[in-house]
From TrEMBL:
UniProt entry tagged with the keyword Nucleotide-binding: no
Residue positions binding Mg(2+): D8, D10, D179
Gene3D superfamilies attached to this UniProt entry: HAD superfamily/HAD-like
Cofactor: Mg(2+)
InterPro entries in the cross-refs: HAD-like_sf, HAD_hydro_PyrdxlP_Pase-like, HAD_sf, Pase_PHOSPHO-typ
Annotated binding of substrate, by residue: D19, D99
Active site positions, chain numbering: D8, D10
Identification of the protein by name: Pyridoxal phosphate phosphatase PHOSPHO2 isoform X1
GO molecular function annotation: metal ion binding; phosphatase activity
Lineage: superkingdom: Eukaryota
Protein family per UniProt: Belongs to the HAD-like hydrolase superfamily. PHOSPHO family.
Pfam families, A to Z: Put_Phosphatase (PF06888)
Length: 241
């Protein structure tokens, strides 16, 4: 019986947002105003598609983008946390559910040699086309009204846990480690044994604390963190139970 660890990527594993970080590859490290203004709320993936096309049109190539992405710093204590999980893989399964894209996440996991820690990565599929432009697609379609149209993390999590159950894998609890507004949906569906671990000072933590002030019910316990080292402490406590 294992614990399932669910990670967000941007501002959780890495200490920045990979989609905004990549803008440093643009001429003068900024996007034209009309491109910036083309973003529509809820359609971030489409916006990033236009950003990647712009970078490609300006001659920014794959190796340059890769250098930028793998220079992103990890969140404090995250490398220690991933090493702790690796040493205890008999106790944990580990997945990423992220609104970034498959190319960026693969680059970071490979460059830092932590691919083996994660059993599965769920994110928007990306690839370089024949012109050398990075293209990105929506992860899926769903009917959740709380989440952007390209990704409901709760739908992904519920489907994954269901498929694992069919394979005979039943988790004792889920620990959800994230920071953003799109982590609120899956966290509110966690059950009594589960643990929501929002990063201190970020949207998820602020939203959960507002919900508790409004007495909106949440079944799981909530343990906030600033460093991966604090997450290690809590996981050590959980595996001793």
């Amino acid at each position: 019986m294992k614990i399932l660890l669910v990670f967000d990527f941007d501002n959780t594993i890495i200490d920045d947002n990979s989609d905004t970080w990549i803008v440093q590859c643009a001429p003068e490290k900024k996007l034209p105003i009309e491109l910036q203004d083309s973003y529509e709320k809820g359609f971030w993936t489409e916006f990033m598609g236009r950003v990647f096309k712009y970078l490609g049109d300006k001659g920014v190539r794959e190796d340059e983008m890769k250098r930028a992405v793998i220079s992103m710093p990890f969140t404090p204590g995250m490398v220690e946390l991933l090493n702790f999980i690796r040493k205890n893989k008999d106790k944990f399964d580990c997945i990423i559910i992220s609104d970034s894209n498959s190319v960026f996440i693969d680059w970071v996991l490979e460059a830092s040699n932590v691919h083996d820690v994660f059993d599965k990565v769920f994110t928007n599929p990306a690839a370089f086309d024949s012109d050398g432009h990075l293209t990105v697609e929506n992860y899926h379609a769903h009917s959740c009204t709380r989440c952007p149209p390209n990704l409901c993390k709760n739908v992904v999590l519920v489907e994954f846990v269901g498929k694992q159950l069919q394979r005979g894998v039943n988790y004792t609890r889920i620990v959800y480690i994230g920071d953003g507004g799109n982590d609120v949906c899956p966290v509110t569906f966690l059950k009594k044994n589960d643990v929501a671990m929002p990063r201190k000072g970020y949207t998820l933590q602020k939203t959960l604390s507002r919900m508790s002030q409004n007495l909106e019910p949440m079944e799981s316990s909530v343990v906030s963190w600033s460093s991966g080292v604090e997450i290690i402490s809590h996981l050590q406590f959980l595996i001793k139970e």
